[in-house]
Design a protein that fits this description.
The chain has helices at about 5-15, 20-30, 35-50, 50-55, 60-75. It is an all-alpha fold and about 80 residues long.
């Protein structure tokens, strides 16, 4: 695996979205590539600095009222 491929997969690795084979490939590359390993550390630090709870927003009621009918129509249309 080369750095360009690894960089694409780092976020998926962090989020636990890689299958075992791809995770092993990325981790093997990280064990031998200081640059990619440093990038993963930086992403982990960023992930820890921004807890997921702070990234979720609730839409204002006015927006929900406008969007809900459209969503209902879209899901009920065959």
């Amino acid at each position: 695996m080369i750095c360009a491929e690894t960089e694409i997969m780092l976020h998926a690795l962090l989020d636990g979205e890689l299958d075992a084979g791809h995770a092993l490939e990325v981790e093997t590359h990280l064990a031998t590539c200081p640059r990619c390993a440093a990038q993963l550390r930086a992403y982990r630090e960023l992930q820890q600095a921004m807890p997921a709870g702070q990234l979720r927003l609730t839409a204002p009621m006015s927006l929900r009222r406008r969007v809900s009918p459209t969503c209902r129509r879209a899901t009920s249309t065959p």
